[in-house]
Amino acid sequence: MEAIKMTGIVKCFGRVRANDGIDFTVNEQEIHCLLGENGTGKSTLMNILFGLYHQDEGEIFIHGKKAAISNPNDAYELGIGMVHQHFMLVNQLTVLENIIMGKEPGGLFLNKKKCEEQVSGLVEKFGFKINLQEKVENLSVGMRQRVEILKTLYRGADIVILDEPTAVLTPQEVDELFKILRQLKKDGKTIVFITHKLNETMALSDRITVLRKGKVVCRCNTSETDEKELAAKMVGRSVETVITKKGQIRGGVVMELKNVRLLKKAQETVSLTVHAGEILGIAGVDGNGQQELEALIIGNKKMKEGSLLINGTEARKMSVKERKKLGIGYIPSDRHKNAMIADFSIAENFLLGYQDKPQYNSHGFINYANLRKDAQEQADRFETKLAGLDQPIGQLSGGNQQKIILGRETSHDPSFMLVAQPVRGLDIGAIEKVHRTLLELKEQGKAILLISAELSDIMNLSDRIAVLYEGRVSALFENGEYTKEEIGLFMTGKSAGGKNS
Amino acid sequence: MKKWEQMSELKKSLAAIGIAILVGALFILLSGESPIEAYGALLKGALGSPKSIANTISKSIPLAFTGLAVALGSRCGMLNIGAEGQLHAGAMAAVLTALSLSAFPEPIVLIVSIIAGILAGMIVGGIPGFFKARLNTNEVIVAIMLNYICTLFTSWLVNGPVKSDGSTAQTEVLPEGVWLGRLIPQTQLTTALFILIAAAVLMYIFLWKTSVGYQLRAVGANPSAAGTAGIRVKTYMIMAMVLSGGLAALAGITEVFGKYHRFIEGFSPSFGFTGIAVAILGRNHPAGVLLTALLFGIMDMGALRMSRVTDVSTNMVTVVQSLVILLVAAPELIKWNKKRKRG
Amino acid sequence: MADINNFLALMLQLSVPIVLGALCGTIAERGGIILLGVEGLMLIGAFAGVAGSFFTGSAFAGAVISVLAGAFAGWLYALFCLKWKAQQSVVGVGINLFASGITAVMLKAIWHTEGMSDSVEAFSSFTVPGLSKIPVIGALFYEQSPYLYLMILITAAAWILFYRTKYGLRYRAIGDQPYAVQTCGVPVNRYRYIAMMASGAIAGLAGSYLSLAQNNLFVTDMVAGRGFMGLAANIFGGWNPIGSLGAGMVFAVAQATRFYLTDFEIPSQIVQMLPYVVTLLILLFVGKRVKGPEALGKLVD
């Protein structure tokens, strides 16, 4: 019997067809992985199933019965629960209060005892270790996820959807989660697991559906496939990989980070150096200190200990402005939040961060002539598609936005480039352009720190690689010294032993 | 692209005005009067003669100043709801300065007084900015408190320490030499008009031609990106409120130096709050603010005649103005109306 | 002793509109809606009360009409904030201005005068003979109106609803993380509409207190800042019904004091300024710890 059957699902956002005629079935009591790269429509499909979006076309059957799901309540009625990527918890309330929210036992008045009895029964049954009276804001990420799972179980879900649940977890927490999921399966639950990670898919699932560009490209049993085949399906055509040239002579140290604590709970501090003419790649699972590293270097977060030297100048106590003056070019991981102003024109965005440069600032007035000349020049250099420099940047595609930002950040001759998740959400053409640009910059002798969640990018572009794990560097080595699998181990906390360079 | 967007903004503003006037007509009908007669009287009262036109412009000047003040704050993401307090503080500081400097040449006294008034407005405006920047307290709440503190404090001054003889709560009259000169005899229109135009032009140049103005707008449009670009977000928040307070103060200063020639308790029929409407309808752009202020001036001036000729209260104008605020503030509502018109 | 009771009685009389205004703020803002329009809602209530009493000849009917008018205005307010997604602070300013205008227009349409309505049937204050002589507590029974007891009742009911019932739990959660609550299957906007109507109803009641209990007629702009004072009290009281009650009392003390200062040198304006100055100082010194609902102004679809 099929627990879930979705046929011909179409969902458009504006001109984008996020789901383009998807057929998706999940058998009862199986763990089913919905695999695909970012932006392939996995979450959209599941949000339709959970009643947060409504499909433009297509039908849904739950346990063989046709279902109209117009809101999460309908989904819960049908026994469908979802754990979102961004947790949907009220931090100010306790675990118990979060679990019962919206489906409190008893009448008008809250009966704390009764609530607790019901929930603790569940907690024991599935072997969760959690304090119901703790406030959610005091919980670790892994614990919060358990609260989310408990929420769905409390609502009587027999189909549990998890959206990229491991993105924020440490390897140990991932193991715990897998244990819980297997236990749930044993108890008769059906699990849909959304992910873009191949190893997890192989380790956990019974069956797999792979999505690409809003379409199903593969359905198979896990036992009949392997990572290589799945990877090929996920990516589609083989991407023309841009690979770094070895053997370039490294210059002097441009950026030096000494004894900096990335995460509060981290036991060790981090020290890194980046030389002129090299790319230092930072690998690691998201949430192991990458964002903190980025914020600490650029100065969006105060550096409480350690030191940061840019071209030999101590920048620890400097403001963002002063640091940028030392020659930092910055491509932030969150483009919309930190790199651009959507309502401003392309020209005005090109000025962002460089409004004090003498060529753009004559006695306090903006020199629009110079600004437009340079902006146009960079836009042309990166082959950016735009209607004109007065067009609001928010109207451009992500790739073209990133090209404008790259043009801006590289046009002031920075000696050090801080580049974080530069290809996230970009189309393949733009990805190649970004990669080529980074290598060109390196050849020009810039020092580049590249933070990326895509290990293949790190391996293709970097001269040296540092792996972040729980806020510390678990390994630091010359690119080529270790295989992808070995680096994968470092990403789970194994250290590189004696070969550490 | 940009032009097209501005057109649609303009259309939205016009639609809001149109709907507000229609709803106003409905209220007039409900109270048993003829909307055509009432609005006709309003237009004739506001624009019927050169003198009435001059008075209409003079009515719009304080609204334009508070409108500019609110618009400047909004450009930096700060809602300056405290213009009322700032203009009271500014007017009082300017009047007290002028009264205490009687020994000096009058043009100097006028300039020093205006500066003193602007400074007072800036201080009052800067406080909510400081609270927002340093403590992350909602600037609206702090500004509301300051409105009361300023109006009560100035009320105490004109009822006590600086009260002139007689029963009215007002200060001594200012020396004639510091009055703002009349442009047209027997009207209220004074050289305040030139100060206003200068302020609007300067504000435009500041916001769109200077580096500091650019940074101020960047903070308003995306504080996080502005911070990452090395712009001191908190400093700009305070700066915007300080400048906004200075502009608001000019509303009070030009009123007392141009029309009343002394500080009188309750001289402002909530110019500060109406300024919010002016700024919103004017899309936080100096030119839009001036036009909107003129429109509101026409309503205020014409309302006097409307209430004489018909039995409609002058407050009908307030109703229409408030409807304009609500309609412009609700983007979805205008969309909804468009849909209905099409369908 | 009698003096103290007189003072406390006066303070209680003055506290009613401020506390009710503060409760409006608490109820709306706990669910994440910025309610700057209390002032306007109260004014609408004050007018509706007098108009109702004028046409029905009954003060009680007037009060009921004021509550209904307030609830209706609250619903409109919510439409703007929730359905049409207007910036909430701006809607507040708009509602205040609208109320000020529309009540004056209606005043002229009904009574053909500017500024002040005719006198209408109103509530008279009463004194409970024995109880009013008890020191301190007696103030509760000296020259009070039914509104005082209603105010205490509403405060208690709001507190119980917020902290003891499941709807309160959900509603408080909405003010902090509306999306989270929405995904639990709670219809967030329905809760917010209901809360806005309740806020409006209470504001209407507060308005009718001004026009039908403290006075027996409507005067333009007669709310005179009590709505904003209520909002300040709500913040002062930490977005909590009991806190609002307490903070409203503090503001009322400052108001009451001015009637007793005629013999002294302290001017009444300065005394009236004090609660605002105190609130500012509180914000200044404990600013970061005064934490309102996290999702103030945030909407869900």
Describe the structure.
The complex is a heterotrimer of chains A (501), B (343) and C (301). By secondary structure, chain A is of the alpha/beta class. Chain A has three domains: 234 residues, Rossmann fold (3-Layer(aba) Sandwich); 156 residues, Rossmann fold (3-Layer(aba) Sandwich); 72 residues, no CATH class. Helix content of chain A is 33%, strand content 24%. Chain A has 17 helices and 22 strands. In chain A, strands 6-7-8-3-9-10 form a six-stranded mixed beta sheet, with helices on both faces. A six-stranded mixed beta sheet of chain A has the order 16-19-20-13-21-22, sandwiched between helices. The relative contact order of chain A is 0.10. Chain B is built from 14 helices and no strands. Chain B has a domain of 224 residues. With 343 residues, chain B is mainly alpha-helical. Chain C has a single domain, classed as ABC transporter involved in vitamin B12 uptake, BtuC (Orthogonal Bundle). The termini of chain C are far apart. The interface between B and C is large, with 54 and 51 residues.
Task: Give a quick rundown of the structure.
The complex is a heterotrimer of chains A (501), B (343) and C (301). Chain B is an all-alpha fold and 343 residues long. Chain B has helices at residues 2-30, 35-47, 50-75, 83-100, 106-135, 139-159, 192-209, 211-221, 223-228, 233-260, 271-281, 286-309, 316-329, 331-342.
Structural class of chain C: mainly alpha
Low-confidence stretches of chain C: none
The major beta sheet of chain C can be summarized as: none
Radius of gyration of chain C: 19 Å
Rg value of chain B: 21 Å
Count of extended strands of chain B: 0
Taking the alpha carbons of the first and last residues of chain C, their distance comes to 58 Å
Please report which band the strand proportion of chain C falls in: under 5%, 5-15%, 15-25%, 25-35%, 35-45% or over 45%: under 5%
- What percent of the residues of chain C sit in helical stretches (DSSP H or I)? 55-70%
CATH architecture assignment of chain C: Orthogonal Bundle
Strand content of chain B: under 5%
What fold name goes in the CATH topology slot of chain C?
A: ABC transporter involved in vitamin B12 uptake, BtuC
Question: Mind sketching the topology for me?
Answer:
The complex is a heterotrimer of chains A (501), B (343) and C (301).
Chain A: E1 2-13, E2 16-27, E3 31-35, H1 42-49, E4 57-62, E5 65-66, H2 72-77, E6 80-83, H3 95-100, H4 112-125, H5 141-154, E7 159-163, H6 171-186, E8 190-195, H7 198-204, E9 207-212, E10 215-221, H8 227-235, E11 253-260, E12 270-275, E13 278-283, H9 290-298, E14 307-310, E15 313-314, H10 320-325, E16 328-331, H11 335-338, H12 346-351, E17 361-362, E18 365-366, H13 368-381, H14 398-410, E19 416-420, H15 428-443, E20 447-451, H16 455-461, E21 464-469, E22 472-478, H17 484-491
Parallel strand pairs in A: 3-8, 3-9, 6-7, 7-8, 13-20, 13-21, 16-19, 19-20
Antiparallel strand pairs in A: 1-2, 1-4, 4-5, 9-10, 11-12, 11-14, 14-15, 17-18, 21-22
Chain B: H1 2-30, H2 35-47, H3 50-75, H4 83-100, H5 106-135, H6 139-159, H7 192-209, H8 211-221, H9 223-228, H10 233-260, H11 271-281, H12 286-309, H13 316-329, H14 331-342
Chain C: H1 2-30, H2 38-56, H3 59-83, H4 88-111, H5 146-164, H6 166-176, H7 178-183, H8 188-214, H9 226-236, H10 241-260, H11 268-286
Helix pairs in contact in C: 1-5, 1-8, 1-9, 1-10, 2-3, 2-4, 2-8, 2-9, 3-8, 5-6, 5-10, 9-10, 9-11, 10-11
